[in-house]
Amino acid sequence: MRIRSIRTALLAVIMIVMSSASFGQVRISVSFGPPPLPVYEQPVCPGDGYIWTPGYWAWSDDDGDYYWVPGTWVEAPEVGFLWTPPYWGWADGAFVYYDGYWGPQVGFYGGINYGFGYFGEGFAGGRWDNGHFFYNRSVANVNVTIIHNVYNETVVNRTENRISYNGGEGGVNARPTARDEAAARDRHIPPASAQVQHMQAARGNPELRASANHGKPPVAATARPGQFSGHDALPARAAGGTYNPPANRGAAQPRSENNARPATAIHPHDLPPMERPAAPNTGNAKTDQKYQQQQQQLQQKQDQERQRLQQQQEKEHQQLANQNANDARKQQTEQKHQQQTQQLQQKHVQQQQRLQQRQAPPSRPQAAPPKEKQK
Fold first, then answer.
1. Mode of pairing for the β-strands spanning 132-136 and 150-151
2. Of 248, 234, 226, 218, nearest to 65 (Cα)?
3. Other C-beta atoms lying within 10 Å of the C-beta of residue 212
4. Residue 110 and residue 101 in contact, taking contact as beta carbons nearer than 8 Å
5. Distance CA 224, CA 228 (A)
6. Are 59 and 28 contacting, i.e. CB atoms less than 8 angstroms apart?
7. How many CA atoms lie within 13 A of 206 on its CB side?
8. Is 124 helix (H, G, I), strand (E, B) or coil?
9. Local confidence band at 316 (pLDDT 50, 70, 90 cut-offs)
10. Residue 197, phi then psi, degrees to nearest 5
11. What is the DSSP string of 187-212?
12. Whose CA is closest to 292, among 306, 307, 276, 316?
């Protein structure tokens, strides 16, 4: 039996934690906008196959404040996939957060000029070619003695601003193009576990809060996720502009997409359906059938695990109701349920990613350069 009254009463006080497995969806809304984007340099790419993910302002409901998630280089979860950054947009009288995702095309990210190839539409920092990612040296900071997959293509940056949100007063005026809408219909992969851990580490760093750094974070970009110290952790050179948050800034409010489910999943039945990968197409019918069976078995297992956790949590709700538990105990239980649900969701996402990686066809090896003839 579901004790809906408990969930309804506590949704407003449970902290909002961004999930790793929901992407492109409305997550939270805030009454005032994020600070301008800080000015910073891009660290050197740490290795072949890493793709730049720009820094952004996220929201912490713990203290009602924005915090900076440093830009970082991340290994692509799948050959051919690119990163669509998250963004803030003005909608229905509030600033709303939309999560980022991986996909075969870069989708809409609010027209925000994040720099380093993300100039408001698409991505000019590199491209995939025959299973290898090639870096545009005019945009990406790459050591060519280590990485040889490079090219030079001049990119005109038409929007010179540090605005960090779409719409509203002073926001970027951009709408999805036909190409963006097509990208939204492609198969997506949520932020990788390394990105989620990177974001969580940033949220736990008091120096990255906007109220502490005033829009100029001491760590603006890192060479690898979660590495917030050392010579590859670069500070912001300047704030992108003045930032004057309201004195009575408060907690963000939960939002739902089409009022279908809470913005933050508290229980398994609040979670969106898992994004199922497309049918394998390796060119070998027997191999494709084997992979399809593996996908179906994993889906059935994950659905069963969601059901078991849902039943367990509903049983605990019933026990609280029978014991006339106080509000503090109810809130503690709901926080535990939220953590359980998000851990299960992250586990399922990682399982899907590992399965897709095993099923991915091997990339074509790069041809070795010709040997010079001895004179």
1. parallel
2. 248
3. 14
4. no
5. 9
6. yes
7. 2
8. coil
9. confident
10. -65, -35
11. --BPPPHHHHHHHHHHHT-GGGBHHH
12. 276
Burial 19-52, CB ≥16 within 10 A → b, else e: bbbbbbbbbbbbbebbbbbbbbebbebbebbbbb
Contact between residue 112 and residue 164 where contact means Cβ atoms under 8 Å apart: yes
- Alpha helices by DSSP H, 11-112: none
Selection from 359, 337, 338 nearest residue 278 by Cα: 359
Tell me if the pTM is above 0.85: no
Query: Which of 80, 69, 64 lies closest to 31 in space, CA to CA?
Result: 64
What is the token pair recorded at 204? 């736990």
Look up residue 341 and give its two tokens.
Answer: 């649900």
pLDDT of residue 276: 62
Q: Which of 115, 138, 112, 7 is nearest to 54 (CA)?
A: 115
Per the structure block, which two tokens stand in for 66? 């924005």
Residues 39-94: tens digit of each pLDDT: 999 999 999 999 999 999 999 887 889 999 999 999 999 999 999 999 999 887 88
| Range in 18-32, 184-198, 292-306 with the lowest mean pLDDT | 18-32
For 288-302, give the secondary structure using H, E and C. Answer: HHHHHHHHHHHHHHH
- Rounded to whole angstroms, the maximal C-alpha distance in the chain is 91
